[in-house]
Design a protein that fits this description.
- This protein has 217 residues and is of the alpha/beta class.
- It has a single domain (33-89, 97-204), classed as von Willebrand factor, type A domain (Rossmann fold), CATH 3.40.50.
- Helix content is 35%, strand content 15%.
- Helix 6 links the parallel strand 4 and strand 5.
- The longest helix has 19 residues, at 31-49.
- It is globular and about 50 Å long.
Length: 217
Amino acid sequence: MAETMVEMAPMEATVATAATAAMGETEATTVDERDLYCELHLHTLLSIVLLIHDINSDLLFLQDCTGSQQPYIKASTDSILNISKRVSSSGKLGAGALRVGLVAFRDVGDEYITKPFGFTSDVSVMQKNLSTLVATGGGDGPEDITAALDVALASSWRVDAIKMVILISDAPPHGIGEPGDVGKSSVSSHPVNIARRMAELGITIVSPMPYAPDNVC
């Protein structure tokens, strides 16, 4: 499949390139390794974001809340909160320049598929939102990441902001041919098409936690 090249502003391109390089090709296998992997790569993202000076920045975290996340969701949410606090207090961004958002997601048939919390410039609001997350549900390997990406695409992004989606999941989306995929997404769009549309709008997607294809929630 031919790749669609999307032109980005210099800062957006810098963030995208650095974030992609930061991900590497390391694969974690145990719970402790995945905790460490997620922690290290989220902190790498923090370093990238701290390169930004005097530019509005919108960071939207998509957090997998299915059962497979139960052993390490606390480490994940603690890292999200740490990023939000450190960027907010870094002094490199003016008041209100940083907004952080959160979309919790599970799978079709669970209590909810997506639970968006919206953007906020108040870190205490983000902390309260994170404290409500519980990991349960799922079933087959893939989760409804496509629905979460769809919510992210429709979020209230600022036109003049650096826009970044940070996807935290150990599973692939439905509909990409993954073994054990017995379900389908709740939305009709293909995840690749959503990602391409995001790229057109200058929204960078990064994932600090690689999914494990053999993992079943």
